[in-house]
Description:
Order of helices and strands: HHHH
Structural class: mainly alpha
Low-confidence stretches: none
Number of helices: 4
Largest sheet: none
Distance between the termini: 28 Å
Radius of gyration: 20 Å
Amino acid sequence: MDWIEIAAAGIAGGLAALAAYAFVDRKSRQGLYLIVMLIFFFFFQELMKVYLIPRIHLWQEEKEIRTIALYDELAKTDPQIYQ
C-alpha cells in the first residue's frame, strides 16, 4: 500500500465522519453514528478507488516518464507521437 491509498483512506474517513455527523446525533445515538460512519467510509473509499486513485497513478507515471530526457523532449516537440 503506497501513500495514495493511505491518504485516500484518511480523506474517506474524514468525509465519513462529517457525513455521519450531519445525519445522526452523535451524543444520544453513538451506535447508530458508528454504523452510519462505517457505511459512508466504505462508500467514499470505493468512490476513491474507482475514480480518484487511478487518475493519481496515471499522473505519477506521466511525471516519472517525463524525467527521462528522450520522452520529455518528445512530449514537447511531437505530442501526438508521445501519446
